[in-house]
């Protein structure tokens, strides 16, 4: 059901400065703990169909760099920060409740 909150992992699985992968239905997700806030993107580079979670997460900058071609995205909203990507990565609303990370289904 659209708009429903779905628990995707325990909140302890996403420690400060780290990333974690999860699934919601059949959608691969990458979760980031940026200064205690959880941000969630589709685990797929918008430039190539390649998983972002294998790239370099920079918690100081709040970005993820795709390991395939070096495209960078802002983990807070999914916007592309440099070429070769120009299209944002899908961003999902997240919250922490009852010891888990919950993501809003679209």
Automatic annotation (TrEMBL):
InterPro entries: Rieske_2Fe-2S, Rieske_2Fe-2S_sf. Residues 6-103 form the Rieske domain. Pfam families: Rieske. This is Non-heme iron oxygenase ferredoxin subunit. Keywords: 2Fe-2S, Iron, Iron-sulfur, Metal-binding. It comes from the Bacteria. PROSITE patterns: RIESKE.
